[in-house]
Amino acid sequence: QVQLVESGGGLVEPGGSLRLSCAASGRISNLHSMGWHRQSPGNEREFVASISSSGTTNYADSVKGRFSISRDNTKNMVYLQMNSLKPEDTAVYYCIHRGYWGQGTQVTVSS
User: Fold this and answer.
1) Which helix (H) or strand (E) is 3 found in, with range?
2) Which string of DSSP letters, residue by residue, matches 7-27?
3) Tens of pLDDT, residues 39-65
């Protein structure tokens, strides 16, 4: 079992920044990737970013250049730095590792 707890969501104005955190516990594997997905009302959950055990990152086209994913294997943490936020980034953001999901954290971008 893997437990994932996201935090750092909130309300931010367009153009603002947020940093999401995901604390992992249980059967963590530093050999596996970690990632973020998001889901907005009426839409399917979609990929946002991932980071491999070696630090290789991948991003959805919609967030490239604005979001940055990182991980700290010593603390079993993964982060998502989100800059230049847009209203269309509004969603519940989920952390994923080895097929396990966190409960999500709400991000709302609105003026």
Assistant:
1) strand 2-7
2) E--EEE-TT--EEEEEEEEES
3) 999 999 999 999 998 999 999 999 999
